[in-house]
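Most newcomers find our protein records easier to grasp once they have seen one. A learned vocabulary of local backbone shapes supplies the integers on the structure line. An example says more than a description, so a record of this kind follows:
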Amino acid sequence: MGKIVVVAEKPSVGRDIARVIGCRTSGDGCLIGERYIVTWAIGHLVTLAEPDEMDPQYKKWSFATLPILPQEIPLKVISATRSQFSKIKKLMNDRETDSLICATDAGREGELIFRYIYEKAGCRKPFDRLWISSMTDEAIREGFQAIRPGGDYDGLYESARCRSRADWLVGMNASRAFTLKYNTLLSVGRVQTPTLAILVKRKKEIEEFRPEGYCTLTADFGDYRGILFSDKLDPDTHLKTRQDAEAAAAEVMGREGRVTQAETVRKHELPPQLYDLTSLQRDANRLLGFTADKTLKTAQSLYETHKALTYPRTDSRYLPPDMIPRVVQTMKLLPEAYQSFVPGALPGGKLPVTRRTIDASKVTDHHAILPTAKKADMSRFTEDERKLYDLVARRMLAAFHPACDYDATRIVTAVGDRTFRTNGRVVVNNGWHDVPPMEKPPKPKKTSSPEEEEQGQLPALQAGERRTVRDTVIREDQTKPPAPHTDASLLAAMETAGKDLDDEELVRQMKGSGIGTPATRAAIIERLLKVGYAARRGKTLNATEKGVMLIDVMPQEIASPEMTGRWELALHEITDGKQDPERFMDGIRKMSSFLVDYARDRAKPLNFPEDVRRGRGKGKKSVPSAVLEGTVCPLCGKGKVRETALAFGCTESGCKCTIWKDCLQRGGGPALTTKIMTLLLEKKQLKGSTGILMIREGEILFYPNGSETPSVSRSLIYEKKTGRG
């Protein structure tokens, strides 16, 4: 009887699988047992070839060779991991190997990793698919008992292959075309560009926002308060001027009001849903300050290394019915810190089942993220792992608690022609709020929104009762601009193709037509930061000047989040066998041709900031410039200050301000870093351990400690002819 070769995605996963199925003998890049041989990739071992590897004519970037539209894009072995590929290829094609098992991650990219290796190795042997949602020993054993034919996942592979080729065609053609057009290295992508467009749109909304002042008027009726509102279908509490507010206050002060409406309604606040990856990333950003990438890596570690979480790269917030006994078991095995919450989630020892949590029709490749049915030793977790595990454990418990019941009271009081609104809320049953988050959420900023008018217990009033206005309070405020995006809000916008949706049901309906997938969105954000199109400041994500300029020259067809959302929906339909892959690829080829034509003939002229090249000869690296947010050019006072690899300059066209980073070092001054320059531009003078740094009247100066004269001063203007001043 021949061997079955099991191919895992990573060495650590391969070793776990090998231990469970009894492969204990070490081989060359594998572990060997009586029936199975377990080997592993190291992520992607095979990828699509570069254009110049297909044809030398593509080595030189030129419009003459664009668009590049091969019917088939050949595969190549990634040189850094060629040795491991050779070992897998040898095992796959060995005479003693009867069949294979694909045990890469159970998702689109995992499928692609195995299939590309299989194709490049020239293997034709039959293979099956291991599909598991956690890395516990029990889950691995169950997975091998429920092994499925590899052909069952052909749709998933076609979707992955289309995604890979589409990104290649759009990226290669658009990046070359726009780089040639603007003579600066520009990275354009099917997914990253519309994501950038979301950031640029928000940046422009903030910059173009003009605040408007308003006032609100609150009346004190003795045992309750009310806010003046317009008593329309869409009630407004804003008064345009203080004079309006003062006039209204004078009109009602001391007068008797009559209650025209007083009603109390029992309401129910449903428990939160279980986590998918995107909702987990959003909460981890909001509550813990984690970036999307950090959340994914931490969750992956809890899944792979500690076997404490189920598969994290899921887009479902539901469980199939057969998971009910497993959830009960999981709750009982949670660490002691959570056991006080378990009875509320298991009333009478049974799991409450609703379609909000248990719904097989809404489970995609994987169910929602849960702790595993394994006693977790949290002392072995890192601090970040502990915090993330805590979020998931508490969410599972809260999701199965009852709703929070409360009485909502609404009172309307008329004082002459003026009407005042009062809202009250009294909790009757705390329900799922009995599972508080360990990490306290950030306090919301105070606003005058109606939600913040809510009071607690209100007097039992009836229509017709009367109260006198004892006092009035006028509050002045301004309308606020939209908040800059954070990882949490950007992920939400990506999930719904740019639409700002808070409604969970609308978000669910948009599933499948978002930008990217839960597994790739973190990498997209990190890519934007890496290429200099976005910058992170604290929790916020902002488009840089270069990012704004790129979107300004992009056609709507590639910058539109909705267009990319439709592509992603098409990829889901390819997985389900509802769309022809070639039809999708024809559309991508037409888009690639359109982008080349647009860049060459229709893109508007624009001067991108130059990329400074540092180093000589081999290893020469292009470094994109970045604008120092919140700065003003010290020379012209109009532009912002832009940093390149060697200097700081002005974003304003025609301004010659240039400050070399090493211009003060010969006189004993410091090298000018981003932090030093930002502070210096803000304060105009800095005192450090070696002396005083100053910007004054078109010069930058350095005074050593104890000296009243500068040891070095440099003009802020540097002509190219004279080099450094």
Observations:
- DSSP finds 21 helices and 29 strands in the chain.
